Amino acid sequence: MATKTDTSISRRSFLKWSGAATAAAVAGGQAPVLHSLAYTGEKSTGSEPEYHFSACGMCLNKCGLVARVENGIVTKLDPNPKFLKSRGMLCARGNAGTSQLYDPDRLKYPLLRKGERGEGRWQRLSWDQALDLAAEKLTKIGEEYTRCGVLFTPGSDMQSQFVHWFAEVFGSYNVTTHESNCLLSRNRAYLDTFGEVPFADVLHSKYIIMAGANRFESIITPDSIDLMTAMKKGCKLVVLDPRFTKTAALAHEWFPIRPGTDMSFFLAITHVIIHEKLYDEKYAQEKLYGLDKLTEHVKKYSPEWAAKVCDIPAKDIRRIAQELAAAAPAAMIYPGRRTSDYVNSTQIRRAMAIANALLGNWDKPGGLLAARMVGTTGPELPEAPFYDDNPDDRLDHGSAHIMFDEEGSFKHTRDAIIAGKPYPVKGWFTYKINPLQSVANRRKTLEMIDKLDFMLTVDIAMSDTAWMADLVLPAPSYLERQDPAAGLQGSSACACVVTRDPVVPALFESKPVFWILRELAGRMGLEEYFSFTMEEYREQQLRKLPDSERALREDGVYYNPSKLYGIYEGKIYKTKSQKIELYNERYAEMGLDPMPVCKPLRENVPSDRFRMVVGRNAYFTHCTTQNNTLLNELMPENTLWIHPNPAKKLGIRDGGTVILSSKSGEGELKAELKKGIREDTVYMASGFGVLSEGLTNVFGKGACMAEILEDFTDELSGNMAMHETIVKVARKGAS
Ligand SMILES: Nc1nc2c(c(=O)[nH]1)N[C@H]1C(S)=C(S)[C@@H](COP(=O)(O)OP(=O)(O)OC[C@H]3O[C@@H](n4cnc5c(=O)[nH]c(N)nc54)[C@H](O)[C@@H]3O)O[C@H]1N2
Ligand SMILES: Nc1nc2c(c(=O)[nH]1)N[C@H]1C(S)=C(S)[C@@H](COP(=O)(O)OP(=O)(O)OC[C@H]3O[C@@H](n4cnc5c(=O)[nH]c(N)nc54)[C@H](O)[C@@H]3O)O[C@H]1N2
Ligand code: SF4
Ligand SMILES: [Mo]
């Protein structure tokens, strides 16, 4: 039976307000992006269906949804028309959420490893047995190696904050997340330029350069939808990508840039803007720091010079700079998201941020926006205990120049665990993250696991990471659990709050990580730190938003009508100079390049080799949804994109099997001959070549990207640098 929750709405009221939403949106000037919202409703078979609000959990975007529940079963997921951030959309993955909920491959009860790691022999445990064992193992490691002897790795999720909190009260500051495999170098670059990481006001932009991002396949709401709307309204899109992605296909111009050379392009853009005086001098005087130094610095970086580095004709670079400046300030170099690509990614993104600064687009329509106020508050929690025998620092402390203290670097942490230095780490707690697939150099992750005494994974499926764990605990999907509130910001669309209540009761014996951590805390004498319920926690989060409880119940989303543009008027920037830093004094003090300096690539691609680049497609979320029955049908295995010319030289035909190898590992998969990729570059999707036999749709299909990728990192932030991998490709059977 379906549980009626606070967020449930009757079918009649749903139909009533779905019309009202459109009217309200028109009044709010949002009409062009809401054209697809007409909801027709469907005849119910048997008993009346119920509708429940929730937020999609198939990726990080948390799109508002309405779940249709019939006879206790979720039969359909629809977009919540009042949720402006996703512009009334649920993507293919969002629609396939029912298939995640009812996946026969789901973990059903706690499992303890028997036999060797990866052998797949498991013993079913009761929850009491599992929790007693976990508490005993973690306590023992804490006593023997200090509390920092346990690494915590929560993925991106609305309950991950409880894993962070547990790590803190348990006493370990060794916490890594997905971020050091994702976006740290972008964050670093924008923080060190503007003092803040911006949102892109894509909807109101007139000119966008997108480099190293793929917004029509790598979906970020509202940007993906707004990009199309903006283009319909006349915005020009220029894409730089070594591959002909779907974004490239829909762009006005596509340049297959030589991988790793974007900095030269953006320094040349800056050169043109400065030397042709295409910037606003008054703005520059008031807001920018170090323009004189930058002017001198970019003298040598002419379009003619850059053309030889990045393979984009000088006349196009000059023209694009002029067009971009003419559209400013409603113009932008899109900041992108995943920047785990090169050893100098922070400096590449600094070059992009600096060019943005010259456009004067900060805090302006069509430009880069500061974070808006959402208004949720951090709950009041007791002070975490202090353990005086703990080491001074995180395990990865000092392994890159300017790391984020809270995040560190997974790659450097892994190296330190393998080396056992500066101190041993013997326990690993992972939640909703799959490093065996998502972190470059799988062999090293396996080597790290070999050093551990105890590894615990909380997941919904037998991921590769779960497959290697000692104890596997089953979690409910996003449709079956109660979550804290989450504040969402995203361009001009929203400063809003969403939350989740169970749409249906949790299946099997699955239990939320919040419950698991409370139970563990209770067994470890830490119960006072988890003595709150989810309702109490949420109440605290929303205490300064009196109308939010009603809005969440009636609309499934709460909007804070906070200021959107002009937030920085009369305010100083959160940088050392209190201005936008073209020249970064702090970098200079640390002996780092205060302005991006274009240096040769770490390794040029030899004529008989290829650079491997990564990137996603719209069917899958990372390495997770490949096993989802509905999505797997769209792409049952991964293939190697290779240009027909080198393929011909190597005797590789379309659909033929190839052996792919790098310094990290190798794999076997089918070739897909594509004219839309540079001749020196290859590409494949991630999430295949799995170790886990518990993923029955995908096991035995394709090759594993994490096995092939080498684990270089960005020197400044410690972010992974996955595109530094050079690979050999051979036809299977070729000598
Ligand atoms: N469908 C779907 N959507 C997602 C996700 C998902 O897994 N699936 N994940 C979400 C997450 S967590 C993130 S971080 C974002 C990531 O989204 P994006 O930041 O857009 O990153 P990618 O999709 O990896 O796209 C990077 C592009 O850069 C290209 N590229 C490689 N090397 C170079 C180079 O040297 N120069 C240039 N100019 N281009 C290069 C690659 O070919 C690729 O197309 O997507 C989010 N949205
Ligand atoms: N080759 C390659 N590697 C990459 C990237 C790439 O493009 N290519 N992208 C990088 C980027 S940008 C990122 S953000 C990272 C992402 O990498 P990860 O953070 O590891 O993300 P996923 O691969 O989505 O793994 C999520 C895990 O959570 C589980 N899960 C899903 N829903 C739930 C739930 O409700 N509860 C619980 N407990 N578990 C759940 C899934 O089964 C899966 O095991 O990968 C990085 N690594
Ligand atoms: S973009 Fe797609 S998968 Fe991600 S939250 Fe939205 S509907 Fe779900
Ligand atoms: Mo990411």
What does the model show?
It is built from 25 helices and 29 strands. The chain has 735 residues and is of the alpha/beta class. The strands form eight sheets. It has a six-stranded mixed sheet. Helix 7 links the parallel strand 9 (207-211) and strand 10 (236-240). Bound molecules: ligand MGD (2 copies), iron/sulfur cluster and molybdenum atom.
Secondary-structure map:
Blueprint lengths: L7 E2 L1 H17 L22 E6 L8 E7 L2 E7 L12 H4 L1 H5 L9 E4 L6 E4 L2 H19 L4 E5 L5 H11 L13 H11 L4 E2 L6 E5 L11 H10 L3 E5 L5 H5 L2 E3 L6 H14 L5 H7 E2 L1 H7 L5 H8 L3 H14 L3 E3 L11 H14 L9 E2 L40 H10 L7 E5 L3 H4 L3 H9 L3 E6 L4 H4 L3 E4 L8 E8 L3 E7 L12 H11 L10 H8 L6 H8 L2 E2 L20 E2 L3 H5 L20 E4 L15 H4 L6 E4 L1 H6 L7 E5 L4 E8 L7 E3 L21 H4 L3 E2 L6 E2 L4 E6 L4
Parallel strand pairs: 7-15, 9-10, 9-13, 10-11, 12-21, 15-16, 16-17, 22-26, 23-25
Antiparallel strand pairs: 1-2, 2-3, 3-4, 5-6, 5-17, 8-14, 18-19, 19-20, 22-29, 24-25, 24-29, 27-28
The structure holds ligand MGD (2 copies), iron/sulfur cluster and molybdenum atom.
The site of one ligand MGD has 35 residues, from loops.
